[in-house]
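Repro case for the chain-ordering regression, as requested:
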Amino acid sequence: MLSFYLEAPAVAAPGLDGWANTKPVLAEEIAYRRTPLPDYVPKILPPTAQRRGSISTLLAIQAAQESLGSTETAPTELASIFASSIGDPEIVDRLCCALADPQPMVSPTQFHNSVHNAPAGYWSIAIDSLESTSSLAASDASFAAGLLSAAVQCQAESRSLLLVAYDLPFDAPLDATRPLSAPFATSMVVTPSASRQTQLHCTLEINTISAPASRMADAELEQLRIGNPAARALPLLRQLASPTDEETLTFDYLPDCQLQLKCKPC
Amino acid sequence: MDPLQITAYTTVSAAGDGREALQSALLEGKGGLQPNDFGHAPLDTWIGRVADLENRPLDEDDRQFECRNNRLALMALQQDGFLTAVESLKSRVDPTRIGLFLGTSTSGILSTEQAYLELRKSGRWPAGYHFKGSHDLFSATQFVRMKLGLEGPAFSISTACSSSAKVFCDAHRFISTGLCDAAIVGGVDTLCLTTLFGFNSLELVSGQPCRPFDQNRDGISIGEAAGFMVLEKNSTTHSGVALLGYGESSDAYHISTPRPDGAGARLAMEQALNRAELTVDEIDYINLHGTATPSNDRAEANSINRLFPSSTPCSSTKGWTGHTLGAAGITESIIACLAIEAGFIPGTLNTQSPDPTLGLNIQRSTKTEPVTRVLSNSFGFGGSNCSLLFGRTSC
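-- result from build under test --
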């Protein structure tokens, strides 16, 4: 069983623009209203990266930047894990279009931004940190895998990590074969011991499948949750927004196992 | 850290199918690079292409995973008695406690490239195209998990050219926290137009077979490979080689250019040495990332020169396999294990005159001699660095 603490939640999604706006929605104090995603240009990125960063990098870093603003852990002490199923849908489309030409020519900037760890790379540049970053994928369970990997690293190396999950929908033609409902990014800080910012103490287990995944009560939020791998974090974000006494959340992971996360407010 | 014993491994690359073929190629100086003949408009470069993958379709039952990347993954699983070794592992270790961590950079993106090409030609999106089983970064991991009958935690790591090195770090953490008792790590990346034309757009592709650390080096040769390894906490059946240390760091410099002073790479190497509780003098050989681009080899030399004595033997084996990108970490980890088990230091194929300004003790030819400990470097775009330390342990 893994044990860790969570703090500094952040969100960037349609109608969930930053934690301050998201918290009352997830606490069911105000209704969820889906609004268009703002054009995020995170100030933490150097100007060239603000101009050249892909849409996935800008969205992921927007969430990461918000987390950094509400933790006391120094940025250079944080390892990081970026979890995403697709990476950057726009670059995949542009590269594959260009490569279908009789004499293919691709943009060097698009190619280097196409690596799955581009947001992690831009993040390390933004915070000028040599600390380890990793980038993983597990299809619809990418957030679950990211949370598991972060909890494992937190415990194994007794260190704090930034966990970022993000995904954006494809346009045609790939949207038909891998449909996502909306863009979504979230971020949080995972720590091995409690701090002044700690919001939840969590224990995490991998179990055989015994219960359906935790859902959102609001139909639109539930649609968002199932429609984007990063939005699978929503039940945990709800817990961070409005902690109940003790709650066990279930996350779908693999065909034969799921994650059970016991959360207790601090 | 507690070492992880290596109890089985398997490899396929242009340098050979299976570990015996790879070892012979290394000992005999026979590389696997060939003039590029891949795709509808082949660039003037050399590639490390695995022969006949086009004619090795997956079984009908596995059609949902059909793509070049999974074909190569399966081909590697079928070498070196690996499937039998995994069955034996499952008799010793509960399959729910065997992790699976695989690295890939581009997964089955070739299938999407071909679908776009088909759309362009015929105006129709190909009916058989399926994203989740091919292009999806999790595809090979799901396919291998199903093929091996594993039931433990799994994910894909995709950090460009360090991907299948970083999987060793995850495996160690999952085992040290008690979540797993064993792990299968590895990686697979296959030729595609994205990487051929992408690296070419950055002027990083050589028109000749790559010449790592040569004074006239001018870029990479792209290759494809798959490899897998079993890591165990406790085993009486091990090869005598173990993972002794790992290190991970970032460059915080540029997405596609390595940090010139090598500070990030050096930090990864220092962490690996510290975790293994070894000093630089105890390392017999460094398997370099050694891509043969002017900037990678210089930055890597800078990082090693500030840490290791100038006498430490170093080589890059990419002249045999090409740069296999997301599969480079596992391929070169397997070369490190072969070097220790069979007692040889690989040379640096194709390199004629090592760049004297880089200052490393570059081994040009493979030579047989006892090797006890090997450091293997893997660095990727995004400034992602990983160093792994392998060594002989007493049985």
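Ordering looks correct now. The radius of gyration of chain A is 18 Å.
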